[in-house]
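Hey team,

Filing this mostly as a record. A colleague (T.K.) asked me to run one chain through the structure pipeline before their review meeting, and I want the input and output archived in the tracker in case anyone asks later how it was produced. No errors, nothing strange. Just documentation.

Input sequence:
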Amino acid sequence: VRLVESGGGLVQAGGSLTLSCTASGFTHTRYGMGWARQAPGKRREWVAAVFSDLSTDYADFAKGRFTASRDNSKSTAYLQMNSLEPGDTAVYYCAAVNTPRIVNGEYEYDYWGQGTQVTVSS
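Output structure:
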């Protein structure tokens, strides 16, 4: 299983970024995909999930600003982020899971990408 993120970078507050995650080595269409982030000195937190049926779920802080999607024909998942704030600065990780599960209120995943840095300046 391989997940490769791209699209991170530096953006001003109020701006937008779209992250991409290309999957290989497994049957992408059968897996739930998701995004998590980790800011310096903080634990990794779940951001969004997009399931095999294209339904989505979001952490409260992401609702209304972030949109998760996937293109199964391209084995790629996306995270569109709008109205970015300095507090969104973090390394963003793409993740995949065969059978979606929730533990302590957050989705857990089996496979992770290497992450892409998102920095939001004020």
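Quick notes for T.K.: DSSP finds no helices and 13 strands in the chain. The chain has a mean pLDDT of 95.
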